[in-house]
Design brief:
Chain B: It holds the Pfam family FdsD. The structure holds two protein chains of two kinds. Chain A contains 29 helices and 36 strands. By secondary structure, chain A is α/β, with parallel strands linked by helices. In chain A, a hairpin with a 4-residue loop joins strand 33 and strand 34. Classes of the chains: A alpha/beta, B mainly alpha.
């Protein structure tokens, strides 16, 4: 928490927004600040640091330590500068004899109850208490040893006030002996994170920081390990275990988190090439200094012992791996790819780009397919998550992206959350939303499960529409029906921004009684009155926003649902102003970027169709080859073509399709049918069990590049350490391309970004120099918007007039029946990420060691299932076993699980149904039967056996 | 999976598109289905689809009409 380590200085109290400017002088220096600013912050603006302990600009002022007292002309006594607002003409003195005497007295009291073990303390050199003792000139402590909190024992025996360290959390330690009860941690937990896990128990001398109830530890309490308390602690009371082990950092590398689509900025605190800790960047425009347990603490996978750092090959997937040189691996890969094309045609091979890799890396992989393979067989994991967002928002608004920045949530009056679980999937955004909910904004949740957001402490009423999985379109159309039939639409907005005749046609469609809530209730199982209430609330809010996740897209009607969402925003004029908008919450860190970079088989970077002769001409000129005008294969199409014997080779970078894609049997059979599968990853993942070449990849800490988050924000990723595998991922792609005759000569990702900017209109203004200078920009960034575009569609839609698309509900083919009477839906949990390849290799497993099946008590009872029992989940695709958790979070008839662990393989059960427009798989609806079980299914046993065989590595000659 | 199943899948996907475009007022559904297929399917998939329809595979009338508008 110290200023010389974190360059953005702590200003003492948070910034205040005001149109009124107040002028004052501090120690003779004139300063102007917004009305409502504290005297402490005004002094900081003038360059003067007022001593402080309980104040920090992360949380609002509290005024408890009395160290920040100042003298103000015309005011009596010595007011605390943190809680005193500025006034026009105020004259402030931060150092007078009276002030100095009071501060010394305060410090003397603090130090009298603090151990003086500074030299061996983990916060040595990074302790605000130490700094303040120096700042106030404390030279002696006159108090005799007496009652205290820090000594284990005294002459008479054990000290009854002493409490041992709480080391239950794997990432940080709580040492009550060093606590000065400034309550910064308690306030950060409330104000920043919004969890309210910490409290101060007792009064006076008995005051102590406590996690949860008296009997709780940090781990057993509600604490979500976001690290906000550790970040604000001024002493060693709450400190990262990595700092205890290593020591203080000596330099900082500013970078971007590689987990979810929020794209938090982080300062990697380094000692040499070792990460000491990751601290969320206060200057980060997505996260403003906040983080979650994944980005803050779960980075140890980068140095995990299972990390593969050497290339490997094998003739057949049943052979053990053979460690080889890069040359041999790349030659093997290149010649097999070329052979496949010779034998089966130009279209017989393809690539899968990674939504976890950088924009530059993704760009190169799709370029490999288009310019070197000379086909358009490129796709990305976004296919299986947000491809319907691309189609839906492009059709209705004209761009494949969210409309707003995350800051916009601070101005929303009502948030409608559909098919998303932000407190687990996008925790930092959830904290920002919860802050707004505590300020009184309304909340509507449309989700089969009762998500944690509905239990936000100190929020008003939240509406929950617990619909049956697969009925999103019916419910959203019913909401639109209410808005139209009750006359709640914004006619002015529709007339100016949309096509009025199109609206009239849509309104007529909506008025049909089949869209009435009373009808929809029958199939969606949501009470009609609740739908009406939600419609009225959404339409009535002056500024209503929609945030949605994969519970919207991963359905057979995913694209229709996205368009139904867009319709709601247009009907009510909730576009183009802060606090409104339609915002997809992206799953992986660079889902937005991988889509932007032309990963899809039908689109070049910037979403231009491959059949568009102008766009094609640009790339033909820059790449110097003739390009195919025909769309290539999407991921599921690749599998189908492989099974038909026509698709024979795949280069898969940073994605584990065997674990993450639906209908595992189908995926593995397709991979087995290929001649050459190349996996580039940090670990031998599940897909590598079916691969012939393994190219070791680099972690985000080991490379330069950019990620684009859910708000279209392009953030820098900076290399903090040498790649353990020898190369950054873009270098490996270049080596492979050159083996196949490409002749690429990039020496740094900045050159790749220059090519992206040269060829893509929405990126034409983006350069590394600009990003270094301003931190980040949101595309479009070009001549018209040199610093990027936080808010889209302000005066008009990108496509011109907004388009109302009719949203007829069509039931999925996946229906329950006698054999499969329950609906399975899937999701994720806070501590784990996607297929878990990273988070499973960190201490995060203490929160989630296995995937569990959530089942309603009545469904469990009917089947004789008790809490913790092994159960078999079977669908028409396959079956797996896992343990049951009985909860009423899911409705009767619905079961839920996560897909973080390969031993569970939830996707053995999911089907090959997909979205009508994009083939995004229908992960969220599978008809299943659940029954008691004794242990792993036949598939699980077989898979485990194959997995063990497939992961054998032959000892190298030298060993 | 056999080749026939792959073909069935193409028709199933086209039928899903037909189900959507049937309810859209802007243009005839077969035209919209064909445009969507032309935009997003590889030439080989389009060819397989058309051959399958021409060989008399069972399909929705909109899908059948769309097959005539597929670029091959």
């Amino acid at each position: 928490m110290k200023d010389f380590i974190i360059p953005d200085r702590d200003m003492g109290t948070p910034a205040v927004k005001s149109d009124v400017t107040v002028n004052l002088t501090v120690d003779g220096i004139s300063v102007s600040v917004p009305a409502g600013t504290s005297v402490m912050r005004a002094a900081a603006v003038a360059g003067i640091s007022v001593p402080k302990l309980c104040a920090t600009d992360h949380v609002s002022a509290f005024g408890s330590c009395r160290l920040c007292v100042v003298q103000i002309d015309g005011m009596r006594g010595l007011p605390a500068s943190c809680t005193t607002p500025v006034a026009e003409g105020m004259v402030v003195h931060t150092q007078t004899d009276d002030v100095a005497r009071v501060r010394k007295g305060v410090m003397e009291l603090y130090i009298s109850d603090h151990p003086l073990d500074c030299l061996t303390c983990a916060a040595n050199g990074d302790c605000e208490l130490q700094d303040m003792a120096g700042a106030v000139g404390l030279r002696e402590v006159r108090y005799e040893p007496g009652k205290n909190h820090f000594a284990r024992r005294d002459a008479e025996g054990p000290n009854p006030e002493y409490r041992p360290k709480d080391q239950s959390n794997p990432y940080f330690t709580f040492d009550p002996a060093k606590c000065i009860v400034c309550s910064r941690c308690v306030r950060a937990c409330e104000e920043v994170q919004g969890t309210f896990a910490l409290t101060i128990e007792g009064r006076g001398f008995d005051s102590r920081v406590s996690a949860g109830m008296g009997s709780d530890s940090f781990l057993s309490s509600d604490c979500v390990s976001c690290g906000a308390c550790v970040q604000v602690c001024p002493t060693a009371t709450l400190i990262e275990n990595s700092v205890i082990q290593i020591g203080t950092p000596e330099h900082i590398v500013k970078t971007t988190c590689a987990y979810c689509g929020v794209g938090c900025s982080f300062d990697a605190h380094m000692r040499g090439e070792e990460v000491v800790r990751m601290v969320p960047g206060k200057d980060g425009k997505a996260n403003h200094g906040h983080s979650c347990v994944k980005g803050r603490f779960a980075w140890g996978y980068a140095t995990h012992r299972e990390r593969q750092t050497q290339p490997m090959v094998r003739e057949r997937i049943t052979d053990p791996w053979r460690v080889v040189t890069w040359d041999e691996a790349l030659d093997f890969a290149a010649s097999r790819l070329r052979q496949a094309q010779q034998d089966h045609g130009r279209d017989a091979i393809g690539v899968i780009t990674s939504s976890r890799c950088t924009n530059e890396e993704t760009y190169l992989v799709q370029k490999l397919a288009r310019a070197v393979f000379l086909n358009n067989n490129t796709d990305t994991c976004a296919r299986v998550c947000h491809s319907p967002t691309g189609y839906g928002l492009k059709t209705t608004f004209g761009t494949s992206a969210g409309t707003h920045d995350f800051d916009s949530v601070e101005e929303t009056d009502l948030a409608l959350i559909i098919g998303a679980n932000p407190t687990d999937g996008h925790p930092v955004f959830a904290s920002r939303l919860r802050k707004r909910l505590r300020q009184g904004a309304g909340l509507i949740v449309i989700d089969p499960r009762q998500i944690d957001l509905l239990k936000t402490p100190h929020m008003g009423e939240g509406l929950h529409l617990p619909l049956r999985p697969g009925t999103n379109v019916a419910v959203l159309t019913a909401i639109a029906h209410v808005i139209v039939t009750e006359g709640l639409y914004d006619e002015g907005f529709i007339r100016t921004r949309c096509d009025w005749d199109e609206f009239l046609a849509y309104a007529e469609f909506l008025r049909d009684p089949r869209h009435a809530p009373e009808e929809v209730e029958k199939l969606a199982k949501v009470p009609a009155e609740l739908i009406r209430k939600a419609a009225r609330a959404y339409a009535a809010a002056p500024r209503a926003s929609i945030y949605y996740g994969l519970g919207v897209t991963e359905h057979s009607q995913g694209s229709t649902t996205v368009m139904a969402i867009a319709n709601l925003a247009m009907l009510t004029g909730n576009i183009g102003r802060p606090g409104t908008g339609v915002n997809p919450l992206r799953g992986q860190n660079n889902v937005q970027g991988s889509c932007d970079m032309g990963s899809f088989p039908h689109e070049y970077p910037g979403y231009r169709h491959v059949s568009d002769p102008e766009a094609r001409a640009i790339y033909e000129r820059v790449w110097g080859v003739e390009l195919s005008p025909e769309p290539g294969l999407r991921i599921p199409n690749m599998f189908d073509e492989a099974l038909a014997g026509r698709f024979r080779g795949l280069y898969c970078q940073g994605e584990d399709i065997v674990q993450s894609d639906p209908d595992t049997h189908h995926v593995t059979s397709a991979l087995k049918a290929m001649d050459i599968v190349i996996v580039q990853d940090l670990f031998l993942n599940e897909t590598s069990n079916y691969a012939h070449v393994f190219l070791p990849g680099s972690s985000f800490l080991e490379k330069n590049g950019t990620f684009t988050n859910a708000e279209r924000r392009i953030n820098m990723v900076r290399r903090a350490m040498t790649p353990r595998n020898g190369y950054e991922d873009w270098e490996i792609t270049q080596l492979l391309a050159n083996r196949m005759g490409a002749n690429w000569s990039y020496t740094h990702p900045r050159e790749i970004m220059a090519e992206i900017a040269l060829t893509t209109p929405s990126f034409s203004g983006v350069t590394y120099d600009l990003l270094d200078r301003v931190g980040s920009v949101q595309w479009p960034c070009n001549e018209n918007a040199p610093l990027g575009t936080p808010l889209m569609h302000i005066d008009g839609f990108v496509r011109g007039k907004g388009k109302f698309v009719h949203t007829e509900y069509i039931a999925t083919e996946e229906r329950t029946g006698a054999r499969f009477p329950l609906l399975l839906t899937t999701g994720r949990i806070l501590s784990q990420y996607n297929v878990g390849a990273q988070t499973r290799r960190t201490e995060n497993v203490v929160w989630h060691a296995e995937d569990l099946l959530e089942i309603h008590p009545s469904d469990a009872e009917n089947r004789g299932i008790r809490e913790g029992d092994w159960v078999r989940v079977a669908s028409r695709s396959g079956e797996t076993t896992l343990r049951a958790h009985i909860t009423d979070r899911v409705a009767p008839g619905v079961v839920y699980t996560t897909f973080h662990h390969p031993t569970t393989q939830a996707n053995v059960v999911t089907t090959d149904n997909s979205d009508w427009a994009t083939n995004c798989p229908e992960f969220k609806v599978t008809a299943v039967q659940v029954s008691p079980s004794n242990g792993p299914s036949e598939w699980q046993e077989e898979y485990r056996h194959h997995s063990e065989l497939a992961r054998r590595i032959l000892p190298t000659a030298a060993e | 999976m056999t080749e026939t199943m792959t073909h069935n899948k193409l028709i199933r996907m086209a039928t899903q598109m037909a189900d959507f475009f049937r309810s859209q007022p802007d243009r005839p559904a077969p035209e919209a289905v064909a445009a969507h297929i032309n935009d997003s399917w590889s030439p080989r998939m389009r060819q397989d689809f058309v051959e399958q329809i021409r060989a008399g595979a069972e399909a929705d009338p909109v899908v059948r009409e769309a097959a005539d508008l597929i670029r091959i």
